């Protein structure tokens, strides 16, 4: 499907500059494809379809995506790519870092990240279950969700530790690093566990997520609150739609 959609388009042909992180499962190294690198390094000028398939293949769900790139001198390099979240679950910081490096190479000095205007679009967070340490019997069944295998809205301890905590920390790091006046984060953190499950690609769920996004446009603008790690309404901030149009 991806190959038919992108029809042989390579990284250097994108209309805007792109930064796409991935992880090579054979070399055990991160691989970050960018428009700038693609213009000077033939190995980085891969097909967009290959990069997208590889960078959206999470371990334990999909196998790594294999492809190779041969230069004009017929020297080839192979790639075995996993989801970029293996090394960086914060694409905003990856993009800002790459931009700092590109500007430095262009003008010969470092420009502070506060000079950048950043729009970050989230994919939605679920309302996760809470665990109170007092009086709770923690066990292996809860950790792997084995005792609630048929309950779609149940959050296992494994998910709580590996996914939820990581997502909240990503939001916190970005909030602390970037200037609020130059950073707009569009995110919703009230999805159910089933809705937020990346493996739930049913037509019903996708349509519902689209409706949620449309509703979000007309709701009050929200901002991440580091004290609660939740998104709260911005006083006099207008709607999300108005913020995007500024």
TrEMBL record:
Signal peptide: none annotated. Keywords: Hydrolase, Lipid degradation, Lipid metabolism. Pfam families: Patatin. Its EC number is 3.1.1.-. It is an enzyme of class 3 (hydrolase). A motif (DGA/G) lies at residues 83-85. GO terms for biological process: lipid catabolic process. Belongs to the patatin family. This is Patatin.
